[in-house]
């Protein structure tokens, strides 16, 4: 009996010592110990925003040039100006704002490009809802689907980039006061076969 009592006491002692070694890990710091980090699309977009803006700016083609060469067929210049050979175009240009329409959530302004006499209507989107919103993420080469675990994460990053557009580009400007003014813009838009829609998502927008 005495031996059993000693054995039990030793076991309880080991358990007590083990409990004293348990480390409490604060929520959000798990990655420091497991090597895995919690994915945050917002944090990723924040970290990438400046590089993506620079990438689109560096690769942007003059919109006048693109439209002139396309001659009404926007997908025809994908190999020349599109990202990865697709009709996702980083562009820049200057023009006069002819109309601002924020009556619906997918707000936009119509810009008459300097020196361009074509029939296409150029719209710069001002949100808060953006059409063809994937085009921003697909018109740069800093990051892409292969950098993420799955399509869902990549989609969340592209959505978070749109939020950055709203915060960094649109909100600092009184959009409704721009009619009749000249603006310089850099951004991206996508084209599909048979479509003449030019819906630019801006990453830079300056009022002259």
Give a verbal description of the structure.
The chain has 208 residues and is α/β, with parallel strands linked by helices. It has a single domain (40-207), classed as Nucleic acid-binding proteins (OB fold (Dihydrolipoamide Acetyltransferase, E2P)). It contains seven helices and six strands. The chain has a five-stranded mixed β-barrel. Strand 2 (88-101) and strand 3 (106-113) form a beta hairpin. Helix 3 packs across helix 7. The radius of gyration is 26 Å and the shape is globular. The mean pLDDT is 88.
- CATH structural class: Mainly Beta
SS strand fraction: 15-25%
What is the count of β-strands? Answer: 6
Number of helices: 7
What count of domains describes the coordinates? 1
Name the CATH superfamily classification. Answer: Nucleic acid-binding proteins
Alpha carbon gap, first and last residue: 94 Å
Question: How can the largest sheet be summarized?
Answer: 5 strands, mixed, barrel
Order of SSEs: HHHEHHEEEHHEE
Structural class: alpha/beta
Residue share in helix: 25-40%
What gross morphology would you assign? Answer: globular
The CATH architecture term is: Beta Barrel
């Amino acid at each position: 009996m005495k031996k059993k009592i000693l054995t039990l006491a030793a076991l309880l002692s080991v358990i007590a010592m083990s409990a004293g070694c348990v480390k409490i890990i604060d929520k959000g710091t798990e990655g420091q110990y497991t090597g895995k980090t919690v994915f945050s699309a917002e944090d990723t977009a924040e970290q990438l925003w400046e590089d993506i803006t620079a990438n689109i700016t560096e690769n942007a083609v003059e919109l006048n040039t693109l439209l002139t060469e396309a001659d009404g067929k926007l997908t025809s210049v994908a190999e020349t100006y599109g990202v990865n050979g697709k009709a996702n175009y980083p562009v820049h240009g200057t023009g006069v704002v002819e109309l601002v329409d924020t009556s619906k959530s997918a707000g936009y302004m119509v810009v008459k490009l300097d020196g361009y006499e074509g029939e296409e209507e150029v719209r710069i989107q001002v949100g808060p809802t953006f059409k063809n919103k994937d085009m921003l993420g697909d018109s740069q080469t800093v990051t892409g689907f292969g950098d993420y675990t799955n399509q869902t994460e990549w989609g969340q990053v592209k959505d978070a980039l749109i939020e950055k557009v709203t915060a960094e580009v649109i909100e600092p400007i009184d959009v409704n006061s721009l009619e009749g003014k000249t603006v310089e813009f850099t951004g991206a838009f996508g084209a599909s076969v048979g479509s003449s829609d030019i819906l630019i998502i801006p990453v830079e927008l300056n009022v002259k």
